[in-house]
Design a protein that fits this description.
Elements lengths: L1 H10 L2 H17 L5 H11 L10 H12 L2 H8 L3 E11 L15 E13 L2 E8 L10 H20 L3 E8 L4 E4 L1
Parallel strand pairs: 3-4
Antiparallel strand pairs: 1-2, 2-3, 4-5
Helix pairs in contact: 2-3, 2-4, 3-4
Length: about 180
């Protein structure tokens, strides 16, 4: 069992690991009735081209189980408006600012993907998942990603015309949220 744990700890890093966890969280958010068996089957598909992640699948499934039992996830499920992996593109005109960006000297296209945006009784909330080992401790996460969150907030407000009341980072490994 020690060899498997050591192997899993070596592969649960990098973009492939993050893609696996994001894919599982996306499915869990889109399909509220998804079972652990459903997520395990999906994990098999998600690692089809990266079989070296196979030893890390149990750890990824455990993290997703921790997230879907977190208090913020109950808020996500309680509302009717919850969107995952939301792509956006906005044009920022010369001299204009958007969130933490600007004012820009030339017209600039800002694009990104918001991991999770959902409506609560007090307004919209945006969350971004961080899956890396550094994300296990939330103390500096918010400061490190504040500009990204601010851009997401400003883009969402521009696109849908409604205010985002809260944005934050989900430290996936610890299952905690750091709110701005």
């Amino acid at each position: 069992s020690g060899a498997g744990a050591a192997s899993a700890s070596r592969v649960d890093v990098g973009a492939s690991w993050g893609t696996l966890v994001h894919g599982l969280l996306e499915h869990a958010a889109r399909h509220r009735d998804a079972t652990p068996a459903d997520l395990q089957r999906l994990a098999g598909w998600l690692i089809a081209e990266t079989p070296d992640l196979r030893p890390a699948v149990p750890a990824a499934l455990d993290l997703v189980a921790k997230i879907v039992s977190a208090p913020f996830w109950k808020e996500v499920r309680a509302g009717s408006d919850a969107y995952v992996e939301v792509p956006f593109t906005v044009l920022i005109s010369a001299g204009e600012s958007l969130g933490s960006l600007g004012p820009v000297a030339v017209p600039t296209v800002l694009h990104g993907v918001i991991d999770l945006v959902y409506r609560t009784p007090d307004g919209w909330r945006i969350l971004d998942y961080k899956t890396d080992a550094a994300a296990a401790s939330g103390a500096t996460l918010l400061a490190r990603h504040a500009a990204q969150l601010e851009q997401y907030r400003a883009a969402w407000e521009r696109v849908n015309g409604q205010t985002v009341n809260r944005q934050g980072i989900v430290a996936v490994r610890s299952g905690t949220v750091e709110w701005a």
